[in-house]
Amino acid sequence: MNYSLIGKLLTVLVRPLRFLLAKLPHKPRINKPISLLILLTALLMSGCVKYDVGVKFDNSNRGELVQHIKLGEQLTSFSGDYVYEWLNSIERRTRKLEGTARRVSREEVFVTIPFSNGKELQTKFNEFFSSRANQKTENKSNEANSELPKIESNLLVTQNNFLLVVRNELIYDLDLRSLSLIGSQGNVSADASSILDLDFSLKTPWGAKNIQITETAIAPEKQGGQLVWHLQPGELNHIEVVFWLPSPLGIGSLLIILFVLGGLYLRYIFMPDPSIQFTPKPAATE
Q: What pLDDT is stored for residue 248 in this prediction?
């Protein structure tokens, strides 16, 4: 089965509990959903995962995919080795996509992945968050993965060139409805949004227009010249936005044409006609 990066994180949360239960002298009969629930409830006292994903466009031919991941102290104290390995895998995938990862601390990392157009952004984004990037890890933990809900993530970017400007349409779908299992069972309840703080942001030179045409579309907030969407665990998150970008190629071509036309004007209109100016004068006769 295919699981997203957040699904991997849930694996990290489950493993320590499985280990602790295995060490008990009398193993209690606790089913898998309840096991997840007990662990997640224990982690509800403070936010455990802060995950910000941002897309920054400078123009139609240059931009960056940026990420900021910060793990709470409570999570690392529960399963430090597993979450540190998860951050290490993020660094490896970043380098594979020709990006850079800056490790602020063992629990915090900043990721920057450059792209040259919308198509490359779409490819790198979906590859980074694809479960196939962690296939080796999955093979080592099939039993834990069998407990995880399925999460789908997909980014689509289309660009239409209008010579001087490029119209862009970005659609992002993140299906977190399967995380609704982190709910009330018996006398225990948990809120996934208290554990996972997920944000998606978009920054462009001329701003962007959010299109809210479906019931699952979420409204963004404007923060410092960018749009920020707060993704909701347990729901289908749909983002659709349209924005315009300057085209360096089109603008450069226009400047070249204007430069040539200016030269022709100076040569044949503003300055004297060279055919007259340099015509040889007839020889003087006595």
A: 85
Report pLDDT digits (tens) over 121-178.
999 999 998 855 555 444 444 444 444 456 789 999 999 999 899 999 999 999 888 7
C-alpha 253, offset from chain centre:
32
Q: Which residue has the higher pLDDT, 91 or 218?
A: 91
List residues bridging with 113 in a β-sheet: 65
Spell 169-198 as b/e; 16+ CB within 10 A means b: ebbbebbbbbbebbeeeeeeebebbbbbbb
Q: In the chain, count of helices (H) and strands (E)?
A: 8, 11
Please spell the DSSP secondary structure of 30-96, one letter per residue.
--HHHHHHHHHHHTTTS--EEEEEEEEEEETTEEEEEEEEEE-HHHHHHHHHHHHHHHHHHHHHHHH
Strand pairing of 196-203 and 49-59?
A: parallel
Determine how β-strand 236-246 pairs with β-strand 209-210: antiparallel
Q: HSE (CB half, 13 Å, CA atoms) of 122?
A: 15
Helix (H) or strand (E) holding 249: helix 248-265
How far apart are alpha carbons 181 and 14 in whole angstroms? 14
